[in-house]
Structure prediction request, 532 residues.
Amino acid sequence: MSRLIRLASLQSRQTRATILANSPKRNYRVIGRGTSNDDGLLDRVVNFLSNVFGKGVKFFGWLINATLGTVWASFTGLWTLIVQTSSFIYNFNWNITSEEITQRFQQSKLILSGLAGGTIGNALGFLACGVAPSATILAVNESLGLYLLKEVGEEALDEFVANVSVLVAISFRLTAQNIFFNAYKNTRRAIKKYAADNKGDRKKLINTFYNGKIADAIEVWGEPNSKPWSFRLAIEERIESIQNPIVQEFVEEAYDEFLDACVEAGYVVANSLDNWVLQQRQAQLLQEQQNNLIEVLPDRDAPEERLIFTGNNQQVKSQIISSLNTFQMLDNRDVGQIIGEPLLDSVRKPPTSLTLRIILRSASKPPWKNRDGSAAKIVRISIPNVKKSKLDWLLIKKAFGGINGYLWGRFMVIAHLDDGNLIKFFAGSESEGKKILNSLIQLTEAELTTVNITEETKQGARLKYKSLYKESTRIYPANLTIINQNQVLKINEGIATTRGLYKRRRYLIPLYPDTKPDNFDLITQELLRKDD
Prediction:
């Protein structure tokens, strides 16, 4: 008796379905590390601390940029630095006493001490009254404790960041001012010491400048109860010394408005420069991100053979470089073409000095496609024992019909030469075959002995299989391979034949361009070179 088992009702299938339905990753069974709870208390605390420390790293980067980076990060920050420095120099009391400088030092210490105390007190207050109670609640109510830690931690970090940024910025500013005040006080002390000459020689020398008032000014420079002097006070005194009230009011307003307008115009220029730089960066980023469609012509003699690239600028650049490198590496190399004869024939037949292997195709230029998009037909013809004087690119191309090519078809032409070699090819008619043969015979040193021209009839297998019958097709010179064989004496070099060892040189040269390749003459020189 057969039993019907419902697989969906099995306990194991139901348990597996429940696990997959409640899995944090859809359709995956997630195995936790803990034995009691997934994402337990320790995991959650670790995740919280990771978030806090991650924000801390961002805080230190932001802090450096906020205090020092703004000086040179933008033109606005640079102009702000120039304005603040100029304002400090413009309003600085150059007749300040040493006691006042000392008081400024003490005042700076008080300011920094207060800021540091406020920052530390604020941090301890959040820790004592916010983080510690939240951690205590965490032990009782895990979800509530984590929520409180998150809220309090973010608020504490924001407060701490703000306080520390103010502390660092003011510390930097006060430190720079104190360095300036200290250098100014020491420089003034050195000048006053140099000018204080009991014998009067230095004083007389100094008094030769500015009508004898320099030495007296140095003597009272920075002394207690001395009159303050700054560029601002000096200019204001000059303006107030104008007797005519109308002229005085005009000069005063013009001077104040000039300063305000100069500062405002500088900020306008700085903001404009920052906006221009930002626009350029955004345009460059947009250009890098947008997709481009680029068509590259690797061979100008074959305009139909083009490469299409798409992607952003960086992707297109890498694709173009890789493709052009591959094109140059395979240029003038007919991959897959095997040049040579079977082993026994190559051993027994006498080696030919110069041989031409011509490749003709039914398309005049790359990418070697017919008009209907099919692959172009390939025809190969060999010319043995070529005359060195006939190694002319244009002459060889004309021998095979030139730019018009010749008509290939069902007439097989076999020419027997007196050196035992053959010239074999097909033509579209008997007259076409004779014309091409007369051109080819002019290239070889061998003499013609007999010629056989036969026509392949459309019978038998050629009638049954269309691809076996040679329809008349116009073919064009595509590539030229020149092979030269020189006899060598070294046993470990060359190809062994019954007549000795021979070394081959092969060069593949394009025939489809309208003009001779630039390196053809160099190739022929290298080809005819004999090894020592």
